[in-house]
Amino acid sequence: MTLFDDLQRLLGVDQVQDSAQAEAFLRDRHGRFVGRVAAAVHPRDTAEVAAVVRLCGRHAAPIVVQGGNTGLMGAATPDASGRAVLLLLDRLNRVRQIDTDNDTLTVEAGCILQQVQEAARAAGRLFPLSLGAEGSCTLGGNLGTNAGGVAVLRYGNARELTLGLEVVTADGQVWDGLRGLRKDNTGYDLRDLFIGSEGTLGIITAATLKLFPLPAGQCTAFLAFASLARAVAFLSHARRGFGAGLTAFELLSVDCLRLLREQFPASPLPFPDLEQPWYALLELSDHQDEAHARALFEQVLGDALENDLLVDARIAASLAQGEALWRLRETMSDAQKRAGQNMKHDISVPVSRIVEFVESTDALLQRHFPGVRNYTFGHLGDGNLHYNVAHAPGRSVAEHMADYAALSRLVHDSAHAHGGSISAEHGIGQRKRDLLARYKSPVELELMRRIKQALDPRGLLNPGKVLPEASA
Ligand code: 2HG
Ligand code: ZN
């Protein structure tokens, strides 16, 4: 019996596809990674996932899990060997339980993030994980990469929002860790091992998530800054003024806004003259009411204007205006995609070193790669910038991308030298795998390898991802 036949017998003919039928799943969203598979399968529940894992074990077939296929690091794309089974969790999309007394929600890994947000809202609660791809990414992918997004400043990463997990282990057992406990000090935290492991340690099939009260009032504004240093100073000012109500502070350089205008001319910019070098989207959530939120918002912005932290502010006068501002920010990824590939660097550094990082890295780039254009934007409140670099005028995208290794090394070395990380929220996948050997200490890498060896001794879960080869 071949693996394909065995899978069809286990799941039924309709739940198993060959490489040709599964084509859409074999390349990542940007077409950077393309693979082949022995089969792609759509199990209907956790028991079927476990059975698939056991069957793959008997055939020594690697397993790659894929959710909404919106990741940027190629973690969900199989390699070209055609040996792997691609596990698609789209059928595991049930909301299993909502507990409003405990403020928890238990959902399956194949749920689209937006569906999770809507389930929470229907119960009068907020599930705050929010990112541009929320209409198509899945919760399993969010947990696999420990996704961040635009509300980390207030609510934390996917990890901080997760209380419990259900996981299928590498040998096909089911670990039911769906505990909705905020306190549980009973030994090693297995949950936190699986979150962020990008499918290399186990397969997350469901999660128990934290819920929060829906805010009673919300204020959104677009701000203009005379320098990045002022934007950072404003952030401290807003933290003091808003306390926990500060929910988002998303930075965009003037070149990002120019790109948005170029690619989406129908979407008006809040500052059409684009006279300042830096802009940010600010959001306050308030648990009293709309009037209280607005008064506080205006006071904090007024003080900042008076103290020259801020050049100008456009406060959204309605929900619709606020949403339009958010749409601008959220289409940054699409605007870049339309303009042609650029080099993405999802870095983080301490907020106190952001200015020094940007200024020194910009200067280094111009010295070594004259004319390249920076599209710098992101989650300033978390110290996480998307420090993306596009081709110089007069050079083709292909010529530019040929410099990827050298240019990216310069950016990553700079982030590292500023006490930062080379991957803040997008993960490692295959794209950054070999970089870990350069930026993680031998001790840290050795501990990671031992964990992998303990949980997946045969190396069948998402091989070739996250961990660099031992010799690298
Ligand atoms: C965002 O913050 C995403 O919009 C994508 O993390 C970042 O396109 C990017 O580089
Ligand atoms: Zn981001």
TrEMBL record:
It comes from the Bacteria. The keyword Membrane does not apply. This is FAD linked oxidoreductase. Belongs to the FAD-binding oxidoreductase/transferase type 4 family. PANTHER family: BLL6224 PROTEIN, D-2-HYDROXYGLUTARATE DEHYDROGENASE, MITOCHONDRIAL. It holds the Pfam family FAD-oxidase_C. Its cofactor is FAD. Keywords: FAD, Flavoprotein. The keyword Flavoprotein applies. GO terms for molecular function: catalytic activity; FAD binding. Residues 33-214 form the FAD-binding PCMH-type domain. GO terms for biological process: respiratory electron transport chain.
